Amino acid sequence: MGMLKEFREFAVKGNAVDMAVGIVIGGAFGKIVSSLVTDIIMPPIGMLLGKVNLPNLFLSLHGGPYKTLDAAKIAGAPTINYGLFLNNILDFVIVAFCIFLVVRQMNRIKEALSPSSAEPTTKACPQCLSTIPIKAKRCAHCTSQLEG
């Protein structure tokens, strides 16, 4: 019974829910970036490289003359799919850059809202160490006269 209670406390904590939402949104974002790379970015790059379909670049280990990667797969030929690998690298770089931009912006917002960046509003009384307003001339707790 104790482990079930502990699991329930973990599952309803904000961190677990935030993580689950992040994973779902991250998966959807990954699909969007993959589509961006495959459908928008790679065709012009292939065109610049001489009308090459980059995801269709492969090296057949059988040495057979296969026109496309699909033809090599249908024939059961082992292949090194370096075009798909380049696509995945580009996917990763774009996703990593987008995440970097989001984290960078969140850090800036967090820093701007951080109370540590604001001027302090309280200080400790040198006599009784109670927390008092920074502009206080006398401690409300011990009635000591304060400098400044």
What does this molecule look like?
There is one protein chain. The chain has 148 residues and is mostly helical. The chain folds into 2 domains: 2-117, Large-conductance mechanosensitive channel, MscL, domain 1 (Non-ribosomal Peptide Synthetase Peptidyl Carrier Protein, Chain A), CATH 1.10.1200; 119-148, no CATH class. Helices cover 57% and strands 7% of the residues. The chain has helices at residues 2-12, 14-48, 69-74, 82-113; strands at 59-60, 79-80, 122-124, 131-133. The protein has a two-stranded antiparallel ribbon. The chain has a two-stranded antiparallel ribbon with strand order 3-4. Helix 2 (14-48) packs across helix 4. The longest helix is centred in the first third of the chain and has 35 residues, at 14-48. It is elongated.
Topology:
Blueprint: H1 2-12, H2 14-48, E1 59-60, H3 69-74, E2 79-80, H4 82-113, E3 122-124, E4 131-133
Antiparallel strand pairs: 1-2, 3-4
Helix pairs in contact: 2-4
Q: Give the overall shape, derived from the CA principal axes.
A: elongated
Cα-to-Cα separation, first versus last residue: 60 Å
Query: How many domain units?
Result: 2
Radius of gyration equals 30 Å
Helix/strand order: HHEHEHEE
Low-confidence stretches: none
Mean of residue pLDDT values: 84
The overall strand count is: 4
